Fold:
Amino acid sequence: MRRPQLALALLALAAAVATGATASSGAEPGLTANTILLGGTSPLTGPASAYASVARGANAYFQYVNARGGVNGRTIVYKIVDDAYNPAQTVQATTQLVEQDTVFAIFNGLGTAQNEAIRPYLNQNKVPQLFVASGATTFGRDYRQYPWTIGFQPSYQAEGWIYGTYLARTKPGAKIAVLFQNDDYGKDLLAGLRRGIARSKVKLVAAQPYEVTASDVQSQIVALKGSGADVLALFATPKFAIQGYAFAGRVGWRPLIINNAVSNASNIMTAASEGGSTKTVENSISIAYLKDPTDATWRDDAAVRLYRTIMARYAKGANVKDVYHVYGMAVAYETVRLLKAAGKNLTRAGVMLQTRKLNDPANPFLLPGISIRTSATERFPVEQVLLQRWSKGSWKTFGGLWGYRAG
Amino acid sequence: MSRRSLGIAGFALAAVAVFLLPRFISDFRAQQFAYVGIYFIALLGLNLLTGITGQISLGHGAFMLIGGYTTAILISNQDPPLELAGHLFTNDMTDYWTIPIAGLVAGLAGFLFGFPALRLTGLYLALATFAVAVAAPAVVKKFDTFTGGGGGINLFDVEGRTGRSVTDPATFESTEGADVFGLHVASFNEWLYYLCWTVALVMFAAAWLLLRGRFGRSLRAVRDSELAAASSGVNLARYKTLAFGISAFYAGVAGSLLAIATTFVNPDTFPITLSIFLLVGVVVGGLGSLWPLVFGAIFIHFMQIEWAQRAEAVIPNFIPILGDIDTDLPGAPAVAFGVILILIMLAFPGGAAGLLRSLQSLAARGYGRVR
Structure:
């Protein structure tokens, strides 16, 4: 008696899962009289789990809105599914959200390849892919092919262009060395930088790629130092940006360092300065569009105070200094505004229509002056930023607003 | 009944159960069990190498990667078309026909890897195979004109050559369905389920036939004592490299199916953790066992997808010794997962197969007493 167990086991299995069948109503998916179901993937585990804060911040804001009556009488239920930053798992998790949980929309899924992997599926099924958490230019540019998709943050190309233009204006003759991640994210930033310094006296003298799977970037930093550059641009995710700072310091290189927004959270900068003991991070330049909770400028700002209250109530134990929570709240705020504008008779198509006419002059979690605007032919919601400089343990913004129209 | 006819009867029953299962579960669950089938194939292969032949591999994700990319490249229309030795490849194969090719390409890679692996044993072999899994994604990015680099290859929009063309899975618009291998299926999920499990059952039967005779005995002899095996006339080099090749063939087929299922490949879809999860699956199923590997496949599929979101609820309620872990901290679910794995290994060192064996002997003893 050995093999029949197999059959028995499989039959038992069949019986066990038979109860798992789901029923969906005939009306718009993901809606009931008093709830809206949103779903999204987030790297709760795996190499990018630091970004899990984004979803946590957004969820805290939705709970706050729900406690105050929700959106047009409906509360928002936000289901977060882990994808471990693996696009194959993003696909599985997203089909689960669409087919099993029947969400109204996919909200703020995180990662470039992750969102590219699910984009055709969502567009074929006419499921909104709202406010993608990636700065890849394609999410704003290719709306004709993918009308059900919209991004949120400034595109990586825009960011690179701003650094390039800033250097061309303020440091003529500068020689730039770039460390970039060898994928669309790193290459988009690099392409933007190139465009920004075109026809100026600033030169790109070296660019070194690294793989996400690399263990460190020491050899790249040594090679970049050897190029004789006086500006180092770190187009790298937090782990590698921190290493970039540390290795530059260790080999005695003191260039002006440009650090991309992906890795400019204050806690990362503090880690890069090895707890404030090294000076490599001083005077680093980066862009900002969020109110940084560690910046003393915003200590008494109403939105940052609200942020702290919401975190204390709905995200107990989370690190309040983590700016990714603010990002999550900024996106959640805009989503609530979008759903309100779409009216009581919510439809997926109606919401997408509203994404084409966003007009929010003052999202409270974004820096003052930054407005969110889209139109039928312009699908990049946040396109304005400020430059900021790291000094004595925090970021200080300087200069006026920078804008970029994607071409 | 002899053991052999019992085996055949069991296999037939299993085939019927697999065939009928989608009638009882939702369309979406069918998709989840399709993934279980994919992992089952990969585990069969890894088990043949690690459980039967005693050669540890921490790099089977790399062979899945080879299979997955082979399939993706053969289906997708490369622009411009690939030209090799004057011959123009149009790369427009239908997805399921690429499965055997993907298996063969991965199998060949595994066979070749088997030669340097001959010189390594135990931990050193584990490290060498691990290195392959670490290096594979970087190699893929290196040849980005061919593989799409970090952005990968998206097969979703490829018209008419993938299972996605069967129907619209969410809304069931255009439910004329399709015939695959003479079987009518109504949705992509059902199509995927039948494809994966048809292949899985064939691969399972092949593994069973392969391991029950002289070949299987030789492999087991290599595992138990290389010296004894060699002195009994077993050619160690031949059997080890063959085991690597066959094992990689299985992994390649699984990788091919994974690419078909997710309609997307990029280097991150075959991370190092995949290789580790495969080894976990083999151990949970039971090293050296065959059909109990299904439990290993179920374990790794549902753990990967469900664990992080359920950890928060499960840890404090069911696993008291982990109650103090702050589940909101990044990495907390992974740490808890590791602890649970250690506990499982301590409690059931033989995996699901070992557990079933001890239940069986317990039952047999019970019978004896009653009589």
Remarks:
- DSSP finds 13 helices and 14 strands in chain A.
- Chain A touches chain B through 62 residues (CB under 8 Å).
